[in-house]
Every structure is written in C-alpha cells, then in structure tokens.
Design goal:
Elements lengths: L7 H11 L1 H4 L5 E4 L3 H16 L7 E7 L3 H18 L3 E6 L18 H13 L6 E4 L6 H8 L3 E6 L4 H16 L5 E4 L11 E2 L4 H6 L6 H19 L6 E6 L13 H19 L3 E8 L14 E5 L7 E6 L3
Parallel strand pairs: 1-2, 2-3, 3-4, 5-9, 5-10, 6-7, 6-8, 8-9
Antiparallel strand pairs: 10-11
Helix pairs in contact: 3-4, 5-6, 6-7, 9-10
Length: about 325
Amino acid sequence: PAVTPLDPVFSFLMDACSDQSIKSQTTGIMVMEPDETNVKAIIRYARVLRSYGLSCLDIVIANKVESDMESVRKAFDFVHEVMEETGARLGALVPFLDELRRLPVSIEALHIPTQVMEIGNAIMRRLHSSEVAFYVYIPDPNDPLRRVALTLSSAMVKLYSFQFTDVAKRLIDVMRGEFGEETRICLLDPEGKVSAPGSRRIALMPAYLSDRLKQRGIEDSVKMARRLAQDTVSSCGRSSSPSLLIVSSTDSLEPVSTYSDQSLLSKEFWREFLAHVRSSDQSMIVFLFCDVASGRCDALDGLADFTLSSQPSEKFQISVVHSRIP
C-alpha cells in the first residue's frame, strides 16, 4: 500500500498486470493488517492501479486477526470493503498465532499454520471459478485433522471407541470441504465401528481374519501387511485427486502371535502397510484409528507422519502429539 507510481516496483506491477501472458499465470494477493489505516492505504493503491486501467488483485487476506469476536467482525468488514473496491474474488482472515506472543521465538520452530494451507488450497480450487467466496479461518478442534489432509499425510489417532464415528464424520466433512463432494472415501473397517455415508467399504477375505491369528514372526507379519495394503489400494482404486482411507481399528486387523513380541509385531506390520499404501498412491491420505483401551497404541507411535490424540470426554478435542511435517 505504500507503493506509489514513482516507486520502481510500480513499473513491475504495471507490467505484470497489463501483460496478459503474465497475468494469466499470476495471482495478485494483498495481505494486510486489519486496521483502518491499512484499509485506506490499500484502497488508495487500488484506485491508482485502476486509473492506469489495471486490476490485478485477486485475493485479500487480513493477517494476525485477534480471536475475539469483535476483532473478527471488524476484520471481516475491512476485508469485505477492500474486496468490493478491488474486485477481488477471494477473502480470508488468518488468526494471530499464540506462539508469536512467546518471545523469543525461532521462525524455524514454527509450523505452517493450517489456515495458511487452507488458503492455498482454496486458491488452487476456487480462484478461477466465477464464484465470489469469503473464508473466515479461525482455529477449531478440527484443525489437526485438516492439517493432515492438507499436507496429504498419514496419521495415527489414539481414540476411545465411542469417538470413532464422530471423528470419521469430521474427517469426511474436512475432506469434502477441502477437496470437493466427490472425494473418494474408503473404509477398512471389519468390525463396522465407523459409519460414513457415501463411503466405499473394503471387504476382507475370510481367510485374512483367520490367518492373522496364525502368524509366527516378523517375516509373516510383513508379508501379511503387504497383502492387505495391495488389496486395500486395489479395492479403493487410484485417483489423481486426494482420497481418504480410514483404518479402524488397528488392533482388529494386525496379526496376533504367541511366538513373537506383540508390540514389535504390530509396529512392523503397520510400518509395512503404510509404506506400501503410500508408495502405491501418494495422494491417499491415511488415518489409522487405534483404540486406547486396547493398550497397543504406544507401539505405533512415530510410524505415521502425525500422531494425534483425543481426550476421553464427550467434548471433542484432538491434539497433535507428534509430527514429522513442518
């Protein structure tokens, strides 16, 4: 907003906005702090561009929005005002990160906010449509689920059995909200613990459920994991767009043996399963649901890109325990 027609960068902007070959491959993003001074400066800047016959601001983002409702309302009004003035088709609010209040803070230690990833996804999916859209990004309990989805990652979720259906529903809502209603949802759920309308259930051969009780060691376990992964990918089908696989629950699918350490058997089984599924279909987002009551979840820590955990209360709250994704 401080740029004037006399500034060298202005000539660059004029070239970018007027050259159709450049403009067709460029997205104009205006990031502002939500206060009246900034809004007036941006509107003045947009009018200068328009006086030269230029209009190349596509997205308006209010950054560092405080979480109280009054601040959100003001930021919403500011962004809406700038969108109307500039003709931008996408607007968003990004909340202030609490980590930034705790100084000193290392930029390298901060993860990419889920809200920023959402904006990137919204840009890719919606920018070139005729729809005018506005998104208010406020942290909520679904953020860890959304974070896994937007990074096309895998996650192991430690849950209590009464939470399985609720978490699955939230996951599917996140996936369809971010990637479209036609997103492929696959369930590997032999005990029928998860209810998910519109999903594709993967049927297991009866021999598999009996064979899992006859395993003698790690080698048998790895072979069984590879077979299950191949059948899963084949039944779910490959897709060029992101798809979701929910495995529920891990203890009902992993091999059982009296000849080997069960924790080691479980770890190697799911390590091989994840590696094979992810190498076969890199756009498949995999969630492993582990029932805390089984006592086997700790053995799976660190296998997936994310480890998530939920508290044993009716109020849904899920948090990131471990992440390999920045």
